[in-house]
Specification:
The chain contains twelve helices and eight strands. By secondary structure, the protein is α/β, with parallel strands linked by helices. This is arginine--tRNA ligase.
Length: 345
């Protein structure tokens, strides 16, 4: 069962509890499932009970107790343990990385995106400040990936920003009559345009909005000290693995992968990160997550291809599938930030 399928299973449990009269709530459009946090257990956890507690008029723990039997009743779920104020920790039958990798490869760079519009209308407005415009534009991209209809406006837009960084907004002028979401990060201390499109956008998006970004050549160096380099290098390595595997005559096939739990966990967390990035209008969350994915992937990637006279095996095909999934997540995340994901670096 993939995280997307488990999310649907959680929503189905809520719907069954509502139909049975045990909960009096509107079934939400989405249930977030993530790797268990501190104090949790199992394969995944969800905070759906905390989300429904207020509209249900019941404590979160009681909501969780109502939902547990409906979840345990599902054939793919082995057990559900309650923890904290009402988290549901879910253990799956035969939990395997193949399902997650298959889901990512099926969705490609759109893994973690909503299936379609959800009816939300979001207006983002920013001052005439390059960082504010870049953050608002990237936040708009992520919000759209999560099903929102978004309009980004700015008090003014310098044509050079569009020419150099590809920055675009939907309208220029005063804030609209309807109160918008104001995007006002700490301005950059220097002009980032000399860094070029990708490095400049990363320099403005990677720090949190309340942090002053560093504008310097450190974003251009081709070394591990540069987070942007690590992310793009990991993507290029994934693409190279696919090319080299084709040269050796074998293709990817999802399956068990030994020693890759950390990498699988961060890949499974990608939909949650996209949802949180959209909810908080904070592209820095996505940028930092991509660094986490890259850092988990780089030690794994040298194991993908056969070495020496070794023949390609099922293990190599499974590792190649996982590498392709990593590449899809990195490419999709960089695209949402407006940054190129090169095949060669």
């Amino acid at each position: 069962m993939t995280p997307v399928e488990l999310s649907r299973t959680v929503l189905h449990a809520v719907r069954r509890a509502v139909d049975a009269g045990e909960l009096h709530v509107s079934v939400p459009a989405r249930a977030v499932v993530t790797p268990p946090g501190p104090g949790g257990c199992g394969d995944y956890a969800t905070n759906i009970a905390l989300q429904l507690a207020r509209p249900a008029g019941q404590p979160p723990l009681r909501v969780a107790e109502v939902l547990r039997p409906y979840l345990v009743d599902d054939d793919g779920i082995a057990d559900v343990v309650l923890s904290g104020p009402g988290f549901l920790n879910i253990s799956l039958h035969g939990a395997a990385p193949a399902g997650l990798v298959e889901e990512i490869l099926r969705r490609g760079s759109r893994y973690g995106h909503a299936d379609g519009p959800d009816g939300r209308l979001v207006e983002l407005h920013c001052p005439r400040d390059l960082r504010a415009v870049v953050v608002a534009e990237a936040a708009g991209r992520v919000l759209r990936s999560q099903g929102a209809l978004v309009r980004v406006t700015a008090e003014a837009l310098d044509p050079e920003w569009t020419a150099a960084l590809g920055v675009r907004v939907d309208a220029v002028g005063p804030a609209p009559a309807e109160p918008p979401v104001n995007v006002r990060p700490v301005p950059a201390p220097a002009d980032p345009l000399p860094l070029g499109r990708d490095a400049a956008r990363w320099a403005l998006l990677h720090p949190a909005a309340h942090d002053r970004p560093r504008i310097g050549d450190e974003h251009l160096v081709q070394r591990e000290s540069n987070p942007l380099f690590r992310v793009r290098y990991a993507h290029a390595r994934c693409r190279a693995a696919a090319r080299n595997a084709a040269g050796l005559g074998f293709t990817a096939a999802p399956g068990p992968v030994a020693g890759a739990r950390e990498l699988l966990v961060v890949l499974a967390d990608h939909p949650r990160v996209l949802a949180a990035t959209a909810a908080h209008r904070a592209p820095d969350r996505l940028a930092r997550h991509l660094v986490t994915v890259a850092d988990a992937a780089l030690p794994f990637l040298p194991t993908v291809l056969p070495v020496g006279e070794e023949k390609p095996s099922a293990a190599h095909r499974a590792r190649l599938a996982l590498a392709q999934a990593v590449g899809a997540v990195l490419a999709g995340g960089l695209s949402l930030l407006g940054i190129d994901a090169p095949d060669h670096l």
